[in-house]
Amino acid sequence: MPWRDRYKGERRSFFLNPVHGSRLDSMPAGGGLAGSDPDLLREQLIDAYDVSYAILVARTFCNIHPDPDYAAAIASAHNAWLAETWLSDYNHDGAFRGSITIAQQDPDQAAREIEKWAGHPQMVQVTMDSGARMPFGQRFYYPIYEACERHGLPLAIHPGTEGMGINHQPTPGYPTHYIEWHCSMSLSFQAHLVSFLTEGVFERFPGMRIVLLEGGVAWLAPLMWRLDPYWKALRSEIPWVRKPPSEYLRDHVRLATQPLERPADDRQFLALMEMIDAEHLLMFSSDYPHWDFDSPTRAFPKLPDALREAIFSGNARSFYKLDG
Amino acid sequence: MTSYVVGRASEIVPGGRKLVDVGGRSVGVFNIEGRFYALRNACPHQGAPLCLGSVKGTAEESKPGEYVWGREGMILRCPWHGWEFDLTTGRSVFNPHRTRVRSYRMSVESDGESPVDPSVETYDVTVDDGLVVVEV
To answer: Which of A29, A152, A214, A256 has a CA-to-CA distance to A276 between 20 and 30 Å?
Structure first.
C-alpha cells in the first residue's frame, strides 16, 4: 500500500487546547488551516512586523508513530511539499526559510533525509520533535548529528509530541489537563539539554549546534547553576566534558524566545536576560499562528538597544548565516 | 466626550456584534439580550483584535472538581491568547478586582502597577430613536 493511501493526517490525540489552538484571526477566509495561506501570513506576520526572514517549522507529528518507515515517509513527503510551495512558489520575496523535518525513530533514515535536502539553498536547519523515547544525548541519535555537522545545519527541537504515541511524557505519569501538559513541556527540554552536554555530543561533534524552540528560556540559569557545580565533583563520570557544561552554550546552543516568560517587574526580566546570556543565546520566535503567539512589539519590555538588536536580528542572522 | 452614530440597532441582533471606527479607534459593539456594549478592539495584553474573539460563557470560580458555567453570552475571549473579558464591564475574568475605569486610570498614571492592564476600555452605548450611539 502506498504511504499516500495510508496517511490519515494523524496528530496528537489528546492534550488539545480546550479554547483554541491557533489565533482565530489566522484562519484563512476561504477555508484551510491556520497558517496555510501565504498571503494572510505575510499580512499578519511578515508585513505587520517588518520581518526580514521567517524560518518555518512545520508540525507533522511524525515522531509519534511506532512504524519508523511510515514516520520517515511523512517527513520526506513534507519536505518535498515545503520545497515546492513555501520555499519556491510562495517565496517571491525570499522571506521564507525552511527546516528539514526528520523522524528520529530511525536515525540512519533521518540522516539520509538530511543528505537529500542539505544542498537546498533555503533549508537552513533540521528539525525534530522533543517528544522522545530517550534523551537526545544518547548515541542512538548520532547518525543524525553526524549528518547535521557534516552539512553545517543546526538541529532545532520543538515540543508537542511529549507523551504522544511512542514518546514518554516528561512528568511522573500523565497530567490531567492541557494546562499542566503545556506548562511541563519545558521539562523535556531541560532533560535533553543536560543529556546533550553530559554525553559529550558537542565534543564528539564539535560542529554540532542545536536550537531549543518553544521550550522556555528562564530555566536555563538555575539549571546551569546546578549542573556546573555537579560537574566539578562528578566530572570523572563524564571525563570527556572538558569544561564547565555551561561553557558549551555559546558555541553550540541557541534558545528561541516564545513563549517568553515574563515577570511582572521588568527589572527582574532584564536581570534574567543577563543570567541566561540572552545577548548571545536568544533568538526571537513568534509561534505564529498558534494561540500563544508572541508579538514582536508587545511580548518584550523595553530592552537595551544592543540586546534588542541581538535577539531580534543579529543572533539569528549570524547563527543561520542568513545574509550569505 | 463626543457622540458617534455607528449604525442602526436593528442591524446588530442579540448575540451579534459590529466593528466600527470611532474617533480613530476600532471599537466592537455587542448586543447582549437587547442591550448594547462597546469595547475597544485591542487586547490590553499584546494588542490583538479582541473584538474578533468568541462570545460564550465562562467557568466561574468553583470548588475543586466542580464546574459552574455562567455568564453565557457575556464573555468575550481574545482570539490570540484566550484571555476572557466580561463584555458588560470590560473587566477580565482572571482579575476582575480592578474596575474598568479604575484600572484604566491606573495604567495611564503608571503608578507601579503591572504593565499588563487586564481591563479593556469600554464606552457608553445608548439607543436613540433606532440609532445606536457610542459615547467616546
So the answer is: A152
Q: What HEC string does B18-87 produce?
A: EEEEECCEEEEEEEECCEEEEEECCCCCCCCCHHHCEEEEEEECCCCCCCEEEEEEEEEECCCCCCEEEC
Please answer yes or no on whether B47 and A25 come within 8 Å at the CB atom. Answer: no
Q: Which residues of B touch A299 (CB under 8 A)?
A: 46
Taking an 8 Å cut-off on Cβ atoms, the answer to whether B77 and A19 are in contact is: yes
**Which range marks the domain in which residue B88 is found?**
3-135
C-alpha A109 chain-centroid distance = 20
Residue B57 contacts residue B73 (beta carbons within 8 Å): yes
- Residue B117: what pLDDT? 53
Model confidence band, residue B118 (pLDDT cutoffs 50, 70, 90):
low
Cell digits of residue A189:
527540554
| ipTM surpasses cut 0.85 | no
In a domain, residue A7? The reply is no
With pLDDT > 70 as the criterion, what percentage of chain A qualifies?
Answer: 100
Residue A23 has its nearest CB partner, among B45, B79, B114, at B79
- Total domains in chain B come to 1
Contact A293 B54 (CB under 8 A): no
User: How many structural domains does chain A have?
Assistant: 1
Is the pLDDT at B107 greater than 60, yes or no?
Answer: no
Closest Cα in chain A to B80: A23
Range of the domain at A265: 42-319
Q: Please tell me if residue A293 touches chain B, with a CB cutoff of 8 Å.
A: yes
Q: What is the CATH number of the domain that holds A282?
A: 3.20.20.140
Answer whether B47 sits within 8 Å of A299, measured CB to CB.
no
Looking at the domain assignment, is residue A64 inside a domain? yes
Q: Is residue A12 part of a domain?
A: no
Give the nearest partner residue to A25 out of B45, B52, B114, using CB atoms.
B52
Answer whether residue A5 is part of any domain: no
Regions of chain A with pLDDT less than 70: none
Please state the separation of Cα A163 from the chain's center in Å. 17
Task: Supply the pLDDT for residue A172.
Answer: 95
Q: Which stretches of chain A are assigned E, i.e. beta strand?
A: 54-55, 96-101, 123-129, 155-158, 210-212, 253-256, 282-283
Domain CATH for B58: 2.102.10.10
Residues of B in contact with A24 (CB under 8 A): 52-54, 79-80
Average pLDDT, chain B: 81
